[in-house]
Specification:
The protein is mainly α. It has 5 helices and no strands.
């Protein structure tokens, strides 16, 4: 006997993409703070310009990833597309931050090692989340979730062609 599907009554695709957006931003924030702790020590005082840079990084990340269409549900299973676009977006975020610091004449206030640690840690973490999301979506689709139920009304030739098309797509 198959257990009934538990649903929140919310579009599951939007829940997954929304959770992915939140996770991405939390990763950017967490890796920024962890990178500072690794390089300067976790008990060391963090000057105010580091949290400001991290907050700006979160804001820029949210925009670049949105405009890079990293949250299109149909593309979440295409891991090579996701990693490629993620790479371009994350490099663009870091280049933007470097340019802002340079033209704001505050680049000497930041440790290059911290920026490098942050870049690498966030990139690896964001990539792992994308891989995990791809695997999760594949498993949910195999279980019959994240799919649409379709009712075909009519037994004409057009209805039969539609049913054949949908069955072929499923396989």
């Amino acid at each position: 006997m198959q257990l009934p599907r538990i649903s929140l009554g919310i579009d599951d695709q939007r829940v997954i993409t929304g959770a992915l957006r939140i996770l991405d931003l939390l990763i950017v924030a967490a890796t920024g703070y962890v990178a500072y702790g690794i390089y300067h020590g976790f008990t060391a005082y963090m000057p105010d310009h580091y949290p400001i840079a991290i907050a700006l990084g979160i804001l820029i990340t949210a925009n670049f990833m949105h405009f890079g269409k990293l949250y299109k549900f149909v593309d979440l299973q295409k891991i090579t597309t996701q990693i490629g676009t993620l790479s371009a977006c994350w490099v663009a975020v870091m280049v933007s931050l470097v340019l802002i610091a340079y033209f704001g004449k505050v680049s000497s206030n930041f440790s290059r090692a911290w920026a490098t640690y942050w870049f690498i840690a966030a990139y690896i973490s964001l990539s792992c989340i994308r891989i995990f999301a791809s695997i999760l979506i594949k498993q949910l689709r195999e279980k019959g979730q994240l799919t649409y139920n379709v009712i075909v009304v009519g037994a004409g030739e057009l209805g039969e062609r539609l049913v054949r098309h949908l069955e072929n797509r499923k396989a």
